[in-house]
Amino acid sequence: MAASCVVLLALALTLLLLVAWKRWRWGRAARHVIVVVLGDVGRSPRMQYHALSLAKCGFSVTFLGFCTSKPHDELLQSDRIQIVSLTELQRLAVWSQSCVSGSALAVEVDVQEASSLHLSPVSLSQNPPGLPAIAVCWFAGCLCGSKLVIDWHNYGYSIMGLVHGPGHPLVLLAKWYETLCGRLSHLNLCVTNAMREDLAENWGIKAVTVYDKPASFFKETPLDLQHQLFMKLSRTYSAFRACSEPSDSGMERSAFTERDAQSGTVTCLPGRPALLVSSTSWTEDEDFSILLAALEKFEQLIDDGESLPPLVCVITGKGPLKEYYSRLICQKHFQHIQVCTPWLEAEDYPLLLGSADLGVCLHRSSSGLDLPMKVVDMFGCCLPVCAVNFQCLHELVKHEENGLVFEDSEELAAQLQMLFSKFPDPAGKLNQFCKNLRESEQLRWDESWKRTVLPLITDT
Question: Which CATH architecture best describes the domain 223-439?
Fold first, then answer.
């Protein structure tokens, strides 16, 4: 009997010691969050913003993801953010790549980040891609006592359905996986009210809408910085080079601007081209043949004598369909339009948006429930947008207020004609949209994040 009491007392004491030790470790980690992206960190702006906001609010952040392209400098310079690169195996199919990358994630988390996961009360995972990241994070959380937060950007199965078809076994399996594993989270964020309602109605998942907002570095670009950017890009892309050299050797000229070397004054060139910008991941959910067909119609209007400017069209981004569309662009032989497809440094992309005259968005959501963050960034730069219409686009683009919505290439061509008629016209529709964007009381990411996400993460 006494021996039994001693054993029970020893067990109770051991449990108390373990609980006390656990709480001590937990207290040390109370301000630590694991951010997981089973994709390229540099091409995951929303998750970068989450990490930066967490760091600014005093959290230490471990960011797990692939480091294929450079993240924003702010992320790299923060002493509160540690980026742990995951090894990605190249040249694999989408499905097998996800599975192998998931295995890499599990190994990296297990070997390199075991102590961090054990110390972190929260892991924040992006979906998509969530296969098998969500399951791995949930399992690690079960072992370590941490809670899982999922940020729903879209549905992975709907994106896979664009490639394989909605009835493909892999797509059906992916949908089952998302439905099952999505319910394992302690907190869910999503990007639109439409997605929030769909998650609740069809998935039984309660989520909080956190709209994308532009970061502070997305703003109108001063003319002197525009000139510096144009001169930098002109060294690689002919579309940014001046058509003729200035007669004065003391002048420096791009296709759009001119700088007096003595005074440093920068001015816009008279008769300059209009600058149209679109950004893309070159995937199936963006049909750039719409833009190319609209540009053909725009060129024909110029040939017919319409008062329209020459056009420089810059399409930024990387992705699987870039080579396909690059071949189509080369076949067009435009005379009044120049198209270039650069991959910009993270710091140059906001400067380009802030220098442009019009943005075009061809994103059609695979689920109809997410919004293009590229438009959010454009609005942050007070750049009006023409966007192809889909189910919930009205939650972001207000037709005739901050831009225009179109259905096909005919409608886009008509909008380009209207917006660029008598360009640059101070009283034109384009400038009115810019004025509306400047006067709108749009929150920036940090302000919005502190109001919505910070209380939720803190409570979790």
Answer: 3-Layer(aba) Sandwich (3.40)
